[in-house]
Amino acid sequence: VQLVESGGGLVQPGGSLRLSCAASGFTLSRYAMSWYRQAPGKEREFVARISSARGTNYADSVKGRFTISRDNAKNTVYLQMNILQSEDTAVYFCYTELGGNHYWGQGTQVTVAS
User: Fold this and answer.
1) Which positions ≥6 away from 96 have C-beta within 8 Å?
2) Cα within 13 Å of Cα(49), Cβ side
3) Backbone angles phi, psi at 82, to 5 degrees
4) Pairing between strand 101-104 and 9-11?
5) What's the longest Cα–Cα distance across the chain?
6) Region 75-98: what's the mean pLDDT?
7) How far apart are CA 72 and CA 66, in angstroms?
8) Is 91 helix (H, G, I), strand (E, B) or coil?
9) Bridge partners, residue 19, by sequence
10) What is the spatial distance between Cα 112 and Cα 60, in angstroms, rounded to a whole number?
11) Backbone φ and ψ of 52, nearest 5°
12) Local structure of 3: helix, strand or coil
């Protein structure tokens, strides 16, 4: 199982980014996928989750601004982030759980600054 994030970078406040998580080694369509983030000096926190049936839920801090989606044909999960704020600065991680095992990507840095 491998999860590889991409799409991070530096963006101004109010801007947008789309993160991608390319999955391999398992059948993506069968599993829920999540995004987490970790800001400097803080614990890793939940951002968004999408179920195998495409049901979604979000942290209150990103509701209405972030959208999680999946393309099973491309084995990829996305996180569209709009109206970015300085508080969104963090390393963003892709996550899944398969058979009781936890898998994380290496993370992609998102920095929101003017």
Assistant:
1) 1, 3, 23, 26, 31, 32, 33, 34, 102, 103
2) 12
3) -120, 165
4) unpaired
5) 43
6) 98
7) 20
8) strand
9) 79
10) 19
11) -65, -25
12) strand
What token pair was written down for 97? 């759980």
List, for residues 14-72, the tens digit of each pLDDT value.
999 999 999 999 999 999 999 999 999 999 999 999 999 999 999 999 999 999 999 99
> Which position has the token pair 């801090």?
61
Q: Residue 97 and residue 55: Cα distance in Å, rounded?
A: 16
CA dist 95 and 93 (Å) reads: 6
List the beta bridge partners of residue 110: 9, 90
DSSP letters, 28-89, are GGGS-EEEEEE-TTS--EEEEEE-TT--EEE-TTTTTTEEEEEEGGGTEEEEEE-S--GGG-
Smallest CA-to-CA distance from 33 within 21, 43, 41 is with 21
Which tokens in the block code for residue 99? 């058979």
